[in-house]
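W.,

You were right to be curious about this one. When I first looked at the sequence I had no strong expectations either way, so I just let the prediction run and decided to look at it fresh. Below is the sequence, 242 residues in total, followed by the output.
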Amino acid sequence: MTEHTSKRFGEDLETVRSKLLRMGGIVESIIVDAVDSVSTGNLETISRVLDREKEINALEIELDSIIAEVMATQQPAAVDLRLLVSVLKMVTDMERSGDEAEKVAKMARRLHENNSRFEPLVEMRHIGNLVVNMLHKLLDAFARNDAILAAEVVRADKQVDKEWKAVLRSISSYMIEDPRLVSEGIDLMFIARALERIGDHTKNMAERVIYLVQGEDVRHAGAKYAEKVARGEHEEPATPAE
């Protein structure tokens, strides 16, 4: 590889990293807005989510194109190839997280347009805050190549799953107390489910960061194994449930 080609390759890799971080920043901001819109029904906030989701789609296409070109023309070595493969996978999860945030905003708009009488659930904002914190940590872990922090994100998804179940129980009780609010309750369940899915996508991306840093695939092996690999303690996973 000539010096000119090497410089261009380095610039391309940095572009890939910076664009993914930019994409993640947009996703984080629209999740915050989407969760806020559940409580407020603010149409300006909802519109901002829908508009910015289009930016995420555009970045997905752009990153896919850049990565495909780099892989085809530069023949990256092992470490750089891990970066490109990891980002390619993370882009998909990032875009799908944006889709889920869009669903939350649209559902919030419908609830408020129908003058629903529901009281926004505290648990809903709590699960929203959890997934926002997960994504923020994930972006930090990626920016710093920090496998330990990424493993914390993998572990945090378990708490999101617990909160998701708690929200379902609260909404079920809410509908039993007033059957007239079943329709609104179902919409709230879909909102909670979308937030839980964002947690899943963020966990997937965190596992990719661990792979990027340590070179070992920790998918489907559980949080405990991901934490060991992140610390450099490589061994066979015990069970996928832990």
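Here's what jumped out at me. Residues 3-40 form the longest helix (38 residues). And, maybe more interesting for your project: The chain has a mean pLDDT of 86.

Coffee later to discuss?

I.
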